[in-house]
Amino acid sequence: MHLASFIVRRLLQLIPTLLFILIVVFVLVRLLPGDPASAILGDRALDADVERINRELGLDRSLPVQFAVFAKSVATGNLGNSIHLKLPVAELIAARLPITILLTVMAALIAVLFAVPLAFVAALRRGRAADSVVRGAFQVGLSMPVFYLGLILLTVFGARLGWFPVGGYGDGFLDHLYHLFLPALTLALSLSAILMRNLRAAIIGVIDAEYVQFARAKGLRPRLILSRHVLRNALISTVALFGLSIGTLLGGAVITETVFAIPGAGRLMVDSIYGRDYPVVQGLTIALAVLVSLTFLLTDLVQAWLDPRVAR
Amino acid sequence: MTDVTTPMMAARRRRVLPRPLIFGATILLASAVVAVFPAQVAPYDPNAFDYGALLQAPTSAHPMGTDNFGRDVLSRVLHAYTIDMQIAFFATVFPFLFGTVVGALVGYAGGWAEVIFGRIVDAVITFPFLVLVIAIVSVLGPGLVNMYIAVGVVGWVFYARIIAAEVRVQKRLDYADAGRAMGYTHARIIFVHLLPNAITPAIVYWMTDMALAILLGSSLGYLGLGAQPPAAEWGVQIADGKNFMATAWWISVFPGLAIVLTGLGFSLTGDGLAELLRTKR
Fold it and tell me: Mind listing the domains of chain A with CATH numbers?
């Protein structure tokens, strides 16, 4: 069974990745100007308090031991406490991260809804007016900063026309979706530009393949050829790209949440940076990186399902 | 015998320049001129307050209007070219150079070097780039130099990956064998002979990367983690105007258009270069 061994292999590959994430964050925290104790306690800390914090953080021990302690506490879900909010970081992240995940999933869905039909139009009418319009649109989309697009959508559809709320998250699931629509659209437009560019090229690459000609010769309906043979194969590279774009999407979510005042993990990240709440920044960096590596895993599995050759 | 076409040969064979390259290069050239001589192009001092002309809509005296301090938006947009073009260059040139050298060495050496490098690539692409940059900047403190450091730590990997893949192909071609037969040093073969034929995709990516750097730089400026106010920088300007969007849209809208235009300049140039230097394999 190829797929099973592929999944196991992929899960094993996750271990060095997770280790690397921990090392980077560990080093980052050690790069903090001054010592963490005075960063936590402020400049006028008492020596006894500094000593206590150092002991609590394990800073009085050797670096490898410190790392082991750090890795162990992260693995058990202990990410320390927020300096300002006085809450466990893990609890804060658990409350805020689902909002960010919902936002990115919505954005991804909208992006696919845009990208797939437009890529088909551009690819099937290669070199004609429709192709030029679509390609021009994605060039502009690629150069458009997320915060700028968000600000404009917010002003036009939120403040001016009043179709959507100008920020916040609302109550209840449907209200959440309503509040997240504009921010998700903002993220989706830049993502769909990336996807469309790739998918268009992939469709053009596939459409003249022999097995597609064969399907045509068999007299299959064009629609069936496109959906079953062309799209499936064109999607393989796009799914990989989609996985690679998740990091960008989450980065965009940080900005979008700031623009639209959505209380998600991204907003928490920016607020924590302003407030120098390092335990939260550290915890979020780990959580977001883990989220990305899990998404990679997922997109790899989807790829293997679309194209069994990948799993070999 | 392999029939080798170098990128330069491909370029010489074409008689007309690709249209995207002409458009893109024109935009970039104009941007560079404004970036170097902002004071000569801009009608006003970008930081001069004018309390007699607050929040004025675009007029012939102020073609892009004025902001809440009466500063001329056009002059600020033009002066911002200096910072934003610098960001595009400095945030990408070190990753480009370092990544090219590492990628060439890794691609040429192959074996265990490639295995280790592959692991590094996997690990780096797992990190949400912006999140990592924000985390690094938050530790080092806001500002442009720290942003360059943060981008550089990660950015070289992408260049190295591209170059390594190209060098891996080039080193198997006859001319590389010929170099070895002539007794050339590995360094000479890699950097004098293989690299010029392997570098095209990296240069094309460099153009895209500069557009991305401007997006990143202005995003950090918007968040208050990049260029610091009152500096004229597009992201900072958009943040300055965000509370006036309903009443004085021009403060934020024009700097954003400058970002889009410059980004287009880079990506059109990249596309055009790719077309110009494309070799048929």
Answer: 2-75 (no CATH), 89-311 (1.10.3720.10)
